[in-house]
Specification:
mainly beta; 8-stranded antiparallel beta sheet; 4-stranded antiparallel beta sheet; 2 helices; 15 strands; elongated; signal; T9SS type A sorting domain-containing protein
Length: about 230
């Protein structure tokens, strides 16, 4: 494993995203007990946010490894969020994969916190020096991250109800006004069904388990309700 990660010089235009930041503190054996600030630098082709650590002038030391430059972005091929360290060239062409999270929420535009899904340590690169997967006891990931399985910023249940719950085949939804569509996610945060709004759902094709129903209104507000498929 190459033990030097160097800082990438970010184009001046990235200040446009300055308010969209993530704070990370973890993997102390490699990166010491210090905060790293990620700033959104753009979005990918599938509209997922991209974050790179700042400052970017080499001022932040990194546990005897030189200076650290990190990146969090969505890997479309692997269908997961990745925490990357630059390989030393300042371009992230061949970065080191430090952590990955494929269970947080594939539909969210920003990465999950350390309590959503599992940020898995890539021991092939870290040689186990990070002490295992990220948790809320060995790390901090805060700021522009989603902290629920759906990554919603606002949940409004109102008087919406659904029954029966648990459900075998058909479910009825009541108390909904101005709804435009429905989405159903499994317990891993994966979208399994998407359709125009209807008050009677045929759920017979779903496997047994816990699901989250997301009701999307015409003004883009959302309501999330959990149900169990028998």
């Amino acid at each position: 494993m190459k033990k030097i990660f160097s800082f990438l010089t970010v184009a001046a235009g990235t200040f446009f995203f300055a308010q969209s930041t993530i704070n990370f503190n973890g993997c102390h054996n490699l990166f010491e007990n210090q905060d790293f600030i990620f700033t959104q630098t753009g979005v990918s082709t599938n509209n997922k946010k991209i974050y790179i650590t700042t400052p970017v002038n080499g001022d932040q030391e990194c546990g005897g490894l030189g200076t650290c430059e990190f990146k969090i972005e969505w890997n479309t091929t692997q269908n997961r969020w990745e925490f990357l360290a630059d390989s030393g060239n300042g371009d992230f062409v061949n970065p080191y994969l430090i952590y990955y999270n494929s269970t947080g929420n594939s539909s969210a535009l920003n990465p999950p916190s350390n309590t959503v899904g599992t940020w898995v340590e890539n021991v092939a690169i870290t040689e186990g020096a990070c002490g295992g997967n990220l948790t809320d006891t060995n790390s901090t990931i805060s700021g522009d991250v989603h902290t629920s399985i759906l990554g919603a910023t606002a949940v409004k249940k109102g008087k919406i109800q659904m029954f029966p719950n648990p459900v075998s085949d058909f479910m009825t939804i009541t108390g909904v006004s101005n709804a435009s569509s429905l989405q159903i996610f499994n317990s891993g945060g994966q979208l399994v069904k998407s359709l125009d709004f209807t008050t009677k759902l045929n759920l017979s094709s779903l496997k047994s388990g816990l699901y989250i129903l997301k009701v999307i209104s015409s003004d883009s507000t959302t309501t999330e309700l959990k149900f169990i498929k028998k």
